[in-house]
Specification:
By secondary structure, this protein is of the alpha+beta class. The protein folds into two domains: about 45-180 and about 190-235, PH-domain like (Roll); about 235-280, no CATH class. It is about 25% helix and about 35% strand. The chain has six helices and 14 strands. It has helices at about 1-5, 25-30, 80-110, 160, 210-235, 280-285; strands spanning about 50, 60-65, 75, 120-130, 135-145, 145-150, 165-170, 175-180, 190-200, 200-210, 235-240, 245-250, 255-260, 270-275. The strands form three sheets. A seven-stranded antiparallel β-sheet has the order 7-6-5-4-10-9-8. The chain starts with a helix and ends in a 6-residue tail after the last helix.
Length: about 290
């Protein structure tokens, strides 16, 4: 029994987001007894753990708790759906509280790394790695003023935050679809589909959530972030060719689309070739939705 208990749990990595920095300490925490490991007990740190279901274990009435470095996994099984829902909700609420404390601390420490941008949300999502197959990979994601950034594991240090695996500029990102089916422990995944304009074209990514509450939170943060990014930028432009003529396409957050001629002898803004409001794109059924 002692040997089995010794194999349970993991240690958190060090860094400015490590619990040793004291940002998780509250009056409530100070008044609570500290659980220590012994031959018959083990305490598992929950900070930045990935709580999910049906990823490594597809047995009914089970939940999975993955370590922040994704090297360890604790699988818990209950006797009924009610018990597993109770445990899941309790762990989910605790993880939310810990993440909020870590987010506040991260915003105090990462101003120089994120170009003074604020982190609005962070946590684990599962990314579909092959659009033709049902294969998913956990990613630690964060949404800032400017981008959605992805990491393969929790970025404990400033250096890690400065080197994300992928970043999606919110200005060029939109949610095109999200599921309305699925349930805790159900067979139907709860997903959102995101499209982002890149230099190589439009990239599509599908993310899986464990609850509709998580889906609603991420969609809200991303949509609000994109709207704020557009209002801050106000206008973007790119050069293109239209009917064999070199032109410049201007997107304005209020005026919509304007195509300008690039040949202007006076050196001005260019002759307007055509202009269209945003709602015309939606009416054309050509917005990818």
């Amino acid at each position: 029994k002692a040997s089995v208990m010794a194999d349970i749990g993991w240690e958190l990595q060090t860094g400015f987001l490590g619990a040793e920095n004291g940002f998780l300490t509250t009056d409530e925490d100070r008044s609570s007894p500290v659980m220590s490991n012994g031959p018959d007990t083990r305490s598992v740190p929950l900070l930045f753990c990935h709580l999910t279901q049906n990823f490594r274990c597809e047995e009914p009435h089970s939940i999975e708790l993955h370590s922040p470095d994704r090297l360890h996994c604790l699988i818990m099984k209950c006797s009924s759906e009610a018990d597993i829902a109770s445990w899941y909700n309790a762990l989910h609420s605790t993880l939310d509280r810990l993440t909020i404390s870590a987010l506040i601390h991260a915003n105090k420490m990462l101003g120089d790394v994120l170009d003074k941008a604020t982190i609005h949300h962070m946590g684990w999502l599962k990314l579909k790695i092959d659009q033709g197959k049902d294969e998913w990979e956990p990613q630690f994601c964060a949404v800032t003023d400017h981008d959605m950034i992805l990491f393969q594991e929790v970025p404990w240090t400033k250096e890690a935050w400065a080197n994300p695996l992928v970043f999606y500029p919110l200005l060029a990102t939109r949610i095109v679809n999200s599921t309305h089916k699925g349930s805790l422990g159900g067979s139907e995944p709860i997903t959102m589909t995101m499209r982002c304009g890149t230099q190589e074209g439009v990239a599509m990514s599908v993310f899986q959530h464990d609850t509709h509450r998580d889906l609603a939170t991420w969609v809200k943060v991303l949509v609000q972030g994109a709207h704020t990014a557009v209002q801050r930028q106000k206008e973007v432009a790119c050069y293109c060719e239209w009917r064999g003529v070199e032109a410049k396409l201007v997107l304005h957050h209020e005026e919509g689309f304007t195509l300008l001629s690039t040949h202007d002898a006076a050196g001005g803004r260019g002759r307007v070739l055509w202009t269209q409001p945003f709602h015309k794109l939606l009416m054309s059924s050509d917005d990818g939705a």
